[in-house]
Design goal:
alpha+beta, Beta Polymerase, domain 2, 2 domains, globular
């Protein structure tokens, strides 16, 4: 992974020169919780300014990065980093707390995050991701492998949101997925089993044939709904 990150930084530096302020690796890859094909390599690229020129110049780099099965880097200006924390508290909390600098100064370590809409964003994201999971799951219930892949790919997002649910309740929250699942189980009465089964599958500890995707889907949805209720009960 380090080799491809070095290649990315080299391309960004060559393209943007002194307009490139900082390149930040964040998320699971920054804390050693990256699990191959089911995990993304998330990168924040901060420029001094972003105009159409920068977008045009970024296109070949971003296309190359996506061809490696990574999401396009998050591209922000210095000003946007400072002024967008109220709109994206989840993202900025995650970046500030789990990051590694690949190039330039650390633009997020001392960032002040405005939590005015934090609870609302966590609930919105939980409900939106739950609805999307139901919709996509309904389309592949008869296709065992596709359903299992859908569930395995979704669990990172729900672990992130469970972590923020813990923080909103003023509770300690770890960074590793299994740790978060266990903490959420104790705090909210969530049954960890469906989450842990999916993590075992992602990590190659169990084979697909050992799992029953439809009952697992049913259990998984029920526990996510319990997590949504825990956030909904918080004072608004």
């Amino acid at each position: 992974m380090q080799k491809v990150l070095d290649d990315l930084v080299s391309r960004l530096r060559k393209t943007f020169s002194d307009r490139l302020v900082s390149v930040v690796l964040y998320g699971s890859a920054a804390v050693g919780d990256h699990t191959g094909r089911f995990s993304d390599i998330n990168v924040l690229c901060v420029l001094s300014r972003i105009t159409t020129r920068e977008l045009v110049e970024a296109e070949p780099i971003f296309r190359w990065w996506r061809e490696l099965d990574n999401p396009a880097p998050l591209l922000l200006s210095e000003e946007e980093v400072r002024t967008s924390t109220d709109c994206f508290p989840i993202e900025f909390h995650d970046i500030r707390e789990r990051h590694r600098i690949l190039y330039g100064p650390d633009v997020v370590a001392d960032l002040e995050i405005d939590d005015s809409f934090y609870r609302a964003q966590v609930e919105y994201q939980l409900r939106a991701k739950l609805l999307r999971l139901r919709q996509k799951g309904a389309g592949v219930l008869g296709e065992r492998d596709l359903l299992l892949r859908l569930l395995a790919e979704s669990i990172s997002t729900f672990c992130v949101l469970a972590r923020h649910a813990l923080l909103l309740h003023g509770l300690p929250a770890g960074f590793l997925k299994r740790e978060i699942v266990e903490q959420a189980g104790r705090a909210f009465g969530i049954e960890p089993a469906p989450f842990l089964q999916l993590l075992d599958y992602r990590e190659g500890k169990v084979k697909a044939k050992a799992l029953e995707p439809v009952p697992l889907f049913e259990q998984y949805l029920a526990e996510i709904e319990r997590l949504v209720d825990a956030v909904d009960r918080l004072a608004k």
